[in-house]
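Objective 1.3, modelling of assemblies. Example input:
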Amino acid sequence: MSAAWGHVVGIVILLMMLSFIGIWIWAWLPFHKKNFDALARLPARDDTRAALDEGGLQ
Amino acid sequence: MPRTESYNDHVVRLFLLAAAVWGVIGMAIGVLAAAQLAWPALNFDVSWLTFSRIRANHTFGVIFAFGGSALMGTCYYVAQRTGHTRLAFGRLAMFTFWGWQAAVLLAMATMPFGITQQKEYAEPEWFIDLLIAVVWVSFGVVFFATLARRRIRHIYVANWYYGAFIIAVGLLHIVNNLAVPVSLKSYPIYSGVVDAMVQWWYGHNAVAFFLTAGFLGMMYYFVPRQAQQPLWSYRFSIVNFWALISVYMWAGSHHLLYSALPDWVQSVGMAFSLVLLMPSLGSAANGLLTFNGSWDKLKTDPAAKFMVLALVFYAASTFEGSMLAIKSANSLSHYTDWTVAHVHSGSIGWVAMITIGSLYAMAPRALDRPAMHSHRAMELHFWMHTAGLLLYVVAMWAAGVTEGLMWRATNPDGSLTYSFLASLIAVKPYYAIRLLGGLLVLGGMVVMAWNLWHTAAAARAKLIKPILVPIPEVIPEPAENQFPAPLPARG
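Predicted structure (tokens):
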């Protein structure tokens, strides 16, 4: 493997790691908490009217 | 625009019926194949009954006919329930049902007569592949159009998995089946080791996106539903989703360790297989921890038992898969029955059990009954399936390790200690135990089919009413660029 190609591979690996960590940070942002909590409850409430009447699912 | 809207459960019921029927057929063929391995005379010297012909019928029957019907049915059910909308394009959805049944029936009717591409899990010839491609694209259109019409702004995570399953399987199917037809027969456009690499890129991702992503979609909806608990961590499910779909694509070369494939490609496959531990165990943990607060259900609810054991086997078989992808471990296990044990702890343990649990959870709702016809039959099914599974995988683990050790044993002068025949004789008792395990699993499927048939009595008599979509008086603002626009609020 040439040195230049090795650098390209290294940069791609770094970008992949950064995007993975980025997704992790994004998912943990407090901004999502309300929606994520509502979504986590969605299957248990299935298709009852209460799911919508309580709001939160937007 | 109608003032009320009901869920389209008709097509869901059809897929439910198809899954039950194909489950029995696919596993019955598997039992015959297992019996032939123990007693080869059971092929009766009939060419289309030989192991080499019916083996493909078993794998295609359980993966694509049974698993495919269950996946498409639950996908249509989940997309409607988590979007609070009716399935889009009802007629196209019906086409996907009949088209899929025609494709799997054609495949299973042609393969025993030698009309096959000889590619594992991609056996059907070009004319069936074309039909599968058309049905699959239609399936995608129905699914994504249903998502587009949703009334809940965020797309629930189960749909992400179903979406990845649909997109990736379409891509894999089309690329791997590119071929030049000459009659009923065709020749692939790839040759040599490239053909092998494309085939196992397909083959492994059939496991990844058909047998994992699709069934994780099922898991992420039906596990919280059956546990009556919120999903343990929604944000963790997002991280696992992106990790799973970005890593799985590169692991296929672990099927070709110690082959003519360049060594570095083999190492890439091994490395990615080890990274896969994170999203696999992450999803299994997320599912299991969702039962926190509802573990008592395991005493009384057979559907919950199926789901919990499915998650345990998902964690166990993906851990085993990553370990077997390590070159040194693979040198012992490759070509032995350990691979068969691994595949079946994944398929009978994870895939079949999450499917059966989900079908037991979905069937009463889709058939408008308060519960399944017989609770005791569900219990019986659970214990038959679990006993069959354990007998099967333990027998095959023992057989695989026996074969691996016998094949690599050498005398001081370097010659082999055992002939191949000696290893076949050594594993014969395990093959009989495997048959017993298979019979128990098949028996359980017959019990489920019987139970579903009775649960569906009212549906057959057309006595059931469609379930209304809960449409709010005032619906939230639609997401930007949502097309087509969501249906208007009631009234």
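The mean pLDDT of chain B is 94.
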